[in-house]
Amino acid sequence: MRDINLRREFANYGVHMPDTAVYAQDAWRDDFHLAMDAQPQLITQANAGIPAFLANIVDPEVVEIVIAPLLATLISGGEIKKGDWVTQSLMMALAEPVGYVVSYGDYDNGGTVDANVEFVNRQPWHYQTIKRVGERQVEQWGLAAIDQNAMLDRSVAVTFGQMQNRTYFYGVAGLQNYGMLNDPSLITPITPGTKVAGGTAWVNATADEIYGDALRLFAQLQLQMGGNVQQTDRIVWAMSTTRLIQLSKINAFGISVRDMLSRAFPNMEIVAAPEYSTGSGELTQMMLPEYRGVKTVWTAFTEKFRAHEVVRELSAWAQKFSAGTWGAIVRRPIAIASMLGI
């Protein structure tokens, strides 16, 4: 009855607590020294919510970093294996027919023919890398659903591919190992035509001026080959990725450079690689990839990918991988015409 009377009394003052059974202990009823509205101090640290990781998710799809394309083999027409990992050198024979004639006479035995053979040497470069995997490391990555061992295997393959591609363009310093861009047998690049807007760069050139440079480069290729190349032959034209877009320019008749090239050179293949943006300027090469069954360039290797034995350590594993490269062996330099400064 007392609680009911208290609720009625509180109701007269606008306070309604119908579910309250006890308001205070009897010992506290008349003790006005107690501050009933005071909040107690926290013993624990104040928290604004749940731990952040409880509201976090991990996307199961792993996004791989984009790397530059490996296009040396596409330009050369494919890779070739020469030797193996114990090979130390490569010797190639270059044969040149020579001779001279004299006026005919029944009793004259003048004139002669011969063949000059030159032996050219190249050296391979063998390289390696090591993959190491720890027991705890594998299990930790497993918590994120990532196969660390498989990712490292892919890293080996990508690293080897990048190195192989680089040697095909630049070779290896200190060895008789060269690339398509720096082989000492390559003929000196010609200069593009001067553009109306100034300079030789294609950025400031018209479609007709770029097409004119293409014809100039083909004429150089014909000159080097002694006329043994036709516009209908299979031709590979390589340039940098920054210059490829310039072939989309159109002339006053709405015809693009590509369209003009496809009409003049029906079997031309245009390939773009970042390596043609060189320290000396923008380079382009027009190549006859094959002549009379002989490839112009070998992009060659001794071993593409050799996986050695897995070595067990105390709480880890290690494995060596190796490969070897000859760089790019330019067998017929006259079949490559270059232009620098586009």
Structural notes for this entry:
With 342 residues, this protein is an alpha+beta fold. It has two domains: 31 residues, no CATH class; 235 residues, 2-Layer Sandwich (hypothetical protein PF0899 fold). Helix content is 23%, strand content 27%. It has seven helices and 13 strands. Strands 5, 6, 7, 8 and 13 form a five-stranded mixed β-sheet that branches. The longest helix is centred in the middle third of the chain and has 23 residues. The N and C termini lie far apart (104 Å). The mean pLDDT is 89.
Query: Count of DSSP E strands?
Result: 13
In angstroms, what is the radius of gyration?
A: 39 Å
Number of helices: 7
- Tell me the count of domains: 2
H/E element order: HHEEEEHHHEHHEEEEEEEE
Could you state the CATH homologous superfamily of the largest domain?
hypothetical protein PF0899 domain
Mean pLDDT: 89
Q: What is the percent of helical residues?
A: 10-25%
Structural class: alpha+beta
Q: Residue ranges: pLDDT <50 for 5 or more in a row? A: none
Shape: elongated
Looking at the overall shape, the CATH architecture of the largest domain is: 2-Layer Sandwich
How far is the first residue's CA from the last residue's CA?
104 Å
CATH class of the largest domain: Alpha Beta
Secondary structure layout:
Layout: H1 2-11, H2 72-76, E1 79-81, E2 90-100, E3 112-122, E4 125-134, H3 135-143, H4 148-170, H5 207-224, E5 235-239, H6 241-244, H7 257-264, E6 268-272, E7 277-278, E8 281-287, E9 290-291, E10 294-295, E11 297-312, E12 316-330, E13 336-340
Parallel strand pairs: 1-11, 5-6
Antiparallel strand pairs: 2-3, 4-12, 5-8, 7-8, 8-13, 9-10, 11-12
